[in-house]
Each structure stands twice: as structure tokens, then as C-alpha cells.
Amino acid sequence: MSSSRSSKSSKKTKGNTTTTPRVWQVETDDRVRGCKVYLKQRNVGAGIAYHWALTFVWDDGYRASYEAMDENGTLTAYWKQGEVDEMSDDGDEYMWCHGKSYIANMCSPVKVNSKAKSLRVGDMKYNVLSNNCQAWAKALARRFGVKLKESVKGSVISINFGSCPSDEEFNNTDDYKFGMYNRKVGELIGRLLTNN
After folding, report:
1. For residue 7, which phi and psi values (nearest 5 degrees)?
2. Rounded average pLDDT over 111-125
3. 173 Cβ contact list (under 8 Å, min separation 6)
4. How crowded is the C-beta side of 171, counted as CA atoms within 13 Å?
5. Where along the chain do its domains lie?
6. Contact 58, 35 (CB under 8 A)
7. Region labeled Disordered — which residues (predicted)?
8. Which of 2, 61, 135, 157 is deepest in the core (most CB within 10 A)?
9. Are 184 and 111 in contact (CB under 8 A)?
10. pLDDT at 27
11. Could you tell me whether strands 33-44 and 49-58 are parallel, antiparallel, or unpaired per DSSP bridges?
12. Which residue stretches of 24-132 are H helix?
């Protein structure tokens, strides 16, 4: 069975690997049904921040994962059927934290795919603080009635100061000290970077 995804291929040129742009594959499953959205996070930037992705899981078990990344200064969205990638294009293993799940509005994979493809956040120029993977994930989730509670007050970026919380700890985000610490540090960094 072939996998629907944003595919990416590499070719060798003069000893260096160059990557051709990803192609947005068409989703064909248009059956409307119940769906949950899972927030996935992994450390980036030597562990000082989180990259966010969303996995949509329908009642029948069908899954599709969506994320947006900086590609040459542009916030660019990608998707694949199934779970988020466990390996980078360079062969490095990703360590994903599996976050809280949310009940989304009834929808079809085609509708999620279409909304993700057309979603524009700001001018789509990548900005580490205000127009990043987290802002994009929040905007996509809102289109399906989900407000991600992992937001960082005063700043869009979520800062990491430890290992991934367990599923039980993460699902209790209101009291989890890790999240409260991130919010305070995120606010401080946001103020420092914006000179406020």
C-alpha cells in the first residue's frame, strides 16, 4: 500500500546532497467522521525549543500528520499519511513527545488536507517567535474547533528546559510545573527579543 504524503526526493550533485521541493499529494478519503487531534512535540535548536506537529486520528483508526517548517525563510506545510516522521532526511532519529489529545469537529481527511494546504499564517515568512510551526499548528487546530492549551502566554514559541513529560503529566497541563516554567521563560524571552 502506498502512502499519501508530501514527498521529497534527494539527488547528488558534486558530492553534496540537494533536495528537490516537496510535492503536496492529494488526499482522497472524503468520509466525514469523528476525529481526535494529537499535539506532537520534539526538541529543536540544541534542545531550547519545541517543533510542533499535529496528528489527526479518525474513529476508524485512519491517521494523517501535519506540520509546518522553515524552508528558505518561508513557513511551509507538509503532511503524510500515518504518524509523524521518526527520522530526519539525514537519518537522525527524532524524539517526539506525544502531547494531549483533543476532540475535533466531525470532518473528513480530505477537508483537513484542504484546510492545511490553504492555511496561511501572517505573510508566511518564517519568524522564530511569531510565525513558526507552533503558530501554524494552532491555526490549523482552530479550524476544527480545537484550541491548543499548550500555548505560551505572551510569546508563540514554547521553550524546553527538560525532557519530555510523561503522557500522564502532559495531560495534566494546568498543574504541570514544566508548562508553567515554560510560560514564564517564554514571556521573558519574548520581552527581551521585542525590547518590551
Report:
1. -90, 150
2. 91
3. 100, 149, 150, 179
4. 6
5. 29-149
6. yes
7. 1-21
8. 157
9. no
10. 93
11. antiparallel
12. 109-118
CA atoms within 13 A on the CB side of 179: 17
Task: Show Cβ contacts of residue 98 under 8 Å, excluding neighbours closer than 6 positions.
Answer: 38, 40, 167, 170
β-bridge pairing 49-58 and 74-81: unpaired
Banded pLDDT at 90 (limits 50, 70, 90): confident
Q: Which three cell numbers stand for residue 180?
A: 508553567
- 186 forms beta bridges with none
Q: What is the pLDDT of residue 79?
A: 93
| Cβ partners under 8 Å of residue 190, min gap 6 | 129, 152, 154, 155, 157, 196
* Residue written as grid cell 539525514: 90
What is the C-alpha separation between 53 and 66, in angstroms, rounded?
A: 6
Separation of alpha carbons 5 and 25, rounded Å: 5
